[in-house]
Amino acid sequence: MPHSSSLSVSDLTFSWPDGDPVFDALSAIFPSGTTGLVGSNGAGKSTLLRLLAAELTPQRGSISMPGVLGYLRQDIALDPELPVDRVLAIDSVRKALHSIESGTSSEDDFVIVGSAWDVEERALALLNKLGLGGIVGSLDDLDRPVGTLSGGEAMLLALTAQLLAEPDVLLLDEPTNNLDHVARERLYAAVDGYSGVLVVCSHDLELLERVDTIAEVRAERSGTSRVRMFGGNYTQYRSVIDAEQEAARASIRDAKNDVRKQERELVDTQIKLDRRLRYGNKMAEQKRVPPVLAGRRKRAAQESAGKLRGTHGDRVDDARTSLSAAEDLLRDDREIRVDLPATKVHPGQVVLTHDDVHIVGPERIALVGPNGSGKTTLLRSLDTAEAEVPWKYLPQRLDIFDESRTVAENIADVAPHATAEKIRGQLARFLFRGSDADAVVATLSGGERLRAALARILLAEPAPKLLMLDEPTNNLDITSRQHLIDALNTFEGALIIASHDRPFLDAIAPTRTIDLTPMAQPTESAESAAETPTREESM
Q1: What are phi and psi of 23, to 5 degrees?
Q2: Any transmembrane segments, and where (predicted)?
Q3: Which of 157, 367, 404, 486 gives a 20 to 30 Å CA spacing to 242?
């Protein structure tokens, strides 16, 4: 079907009800093709998508939406009792079709069906294309409740619903979260085959390498965010940014040198003027110069000195202004800085004994397998087991908070002996600085929630010696993801991590891999463990 060429935003201004500004006079054009929406957590990516989807109303400005809109949210919250066809929004058409087929139809049934006579066949074909054919492969399966699907399968089902509606504009917010490798490849293929305006917010580097345009949402010093467009994929975008940053660093070096030079010249000028003044005063005291002439010379010298000081002072001010402008060009990419407490587990120390998993020493275990294979179920069972050391579990849904309380208050709950000053100092390393630590958890973005969750488990008392993490890189921006890797690679306790993010798993260098893929025997693959480098081998 034909699609319009672009989605445009003009003079868009939006602030939250408490007055916190997000966008001010924002204008941007999202062209036909795939645009990757990138930026740090909290910069406003999901907020922009919600504005584009009309879930939020701007205080000023307009959005030009060509045709039908589809929007897939970051967190899919489906009623487990809903049948699949209801999620696909074809239940009323199916009911009308069945009435027509049984000969009990009314005129309204034909109106409901319209031209969608093959909607069931198209739905099954699309479900199969996205890898759900083994679960929803027949017409009867369209009646099954969605509660029987895993989180990743529910995401694919929700994507199927959007694609089935054939929208002119499709907005996707972190669509690869919770998807295994095979499911991600199917989603990539669906993205590649979409012909309209597609805007996808993602930290998935593989997905971002497939886009046509990068739209960077970046917070400015003013407190609001702007959007800057870059042609090409993520690698091309990074090349432009890296070149700009190198030029900015060179400009800063030159500007600093100029400031030092102008400051030295100002000091030298002041010294020379002081010498001249002392000499003139000495001559006057010794009456070598007539008083009238001495006074005239003194006034002239003072005027000249004032002008000279003003000239050099202006040069210093200009140099400092140039330095400030150059520093504004240098990105202030905030990064998570985690100093983990004493968490060392000694070799041979029993960490956890369980029917399915036995952990000894500082093992780093990767838990892999397709969606629905039981990774989360296994982690939950381990969370209830009797561990030999303090441990913490980070669930996939991050439902470990008191949503009505602040970030700092949630940390205080698990670190009762820490002072308020210490808690705030530690939270600053997780980018909750100043008043950010007083944010109510319910108001946090997806990435901010993950940072708060990491802080809650890592700053707990006593310090955890075993971490169990379920898809920890979901919603984490690319920079913070790397610093999570760095933090985990300094962690001297035991780790068991369920993840579909293969580059992330490779970076933390698991010593053992447990594969829950059906028919994958043995469960603990010695071959897999042998092929995976240890931390020492990967350094």
Answers
A1: -130, 145
A2: none
A3: 486
